[in-house]
Every structure is written in C-alpha cells, then in structure tokens.
Amino acid sequence: MSEIDLAPLKSALQEMEGRSALLPALHQAQKLYGYLPEPVAALVASSLDVPLADIYGVIDFYTMLYKEPVGELIVRVCGDPSCALQGSDAVTDCLVPALPGFSRSGQR
User: Fold this and answer.
1) Residue-wise pLDDT tens digits, 8-41
2) CA 5, 29, 62, 71 torsion-angle sign
C-alpha cells in the first residue's frame, strides 16, 4: 500500500476539536482521500481525542462513509416507505438489470 500524505488532513483538523467535530472531520477527510483508510481514521481519532473504536463505529454506522475505495459514480435510491410510495421501487427495478452483478439489495 502506498503512503498517504496526511499533511492536508492535519491542516484541515487544526480548527476542529472534540467529539462534536467528528462528523465534519470525517466528511473532510473523505473529501480529501475519497475514503477513510486506517491512517486517516487514526489521525482523526488522535486529533479529536476520540477513541479509534468510536471513529470506526461512526464510519460503520453512516452509509456514506467508506473504509475502502469506492467507484467514481455511486447511485443511491431511497428505500424508505415514503420513497417507495412515490415509486422508488420502480426506479430500483429499472436500475438493477443495468448493473451487472448487483442484486436489489446492492450486494454482489
């Protein structure tokens, strides 16, 4: 694995402190790197004085935070009941055949 330049993140984290800055810090880090690899998560944890386990708990909880690289284009369709009433199931049904190897749940 190539080394990750953490200097841009260190600069961005200078203005942030404490647990209340956790989501903004993770969003900024993901904006910089495209995902949140271990060295990035560790730097956020140490900079904000938040346990690394808590950082990973937040990353795992929010579906728009990624621990691994993702594609350049991500298609999301709301699956909530109110969205389904407005036709999101039909949108998903049209998209799934166009995405080889993916099922309705998004799993390969």
Assistant:
1) 999 999 999 999 999 999 999 999 999 999 999 9
2) negative
pLDDT at position 108: 44
| Buried-state track 77-90, b at ≥16 Cβ within 10 A, e below 16 | beeeeeeeeeebee
Quick: pLDDT tens for 38-81: 999 999 999 999 999 999 999 999 989 999 998 887 888 888 89
Length of the chain, in residues: 108
| E strand or H helix that includes residue 40 | helix 38-48
Q: What share of the chain is helix, strand, coil (3-state, %, to 5)?
A: 55, 0, 45
Contact 10, 46 (CB under 8 A): no
Nearest to 59 by CA among 24, 33, 26, 32: 26
